[in-house]
Amino acid sequence: MKTSQIILTTILFIAMFLWVSNINIQIKPFKISFGSLYSAIGFFLIIFGTVFLRHQGVRDGYKKGLKDGVEMSIDKVNDAFHKKVIELKEKKEEI
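Now predict its structure.
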């Protein structure tokens, strides 16, 4: 699944790059020229920046979620421990 997604994304990216750059291919004589290479490079940089920012956000979100999860788990364990201690003290006082 992940490999096919990477391949599809790469193909789409190359197709968009060629479309934005206004590529001109001639067969005889063989020649490939770009009509507006600067816009294609700008397109590439915008996509690269967007992917980088998205990845950074996911990574920061994961770290925050992990930290919050650890804190919640510690709070639950502490609450359960204190309840058990209180129960044991009450049982000890009854005896």
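The longest strand covers residues 23-26.
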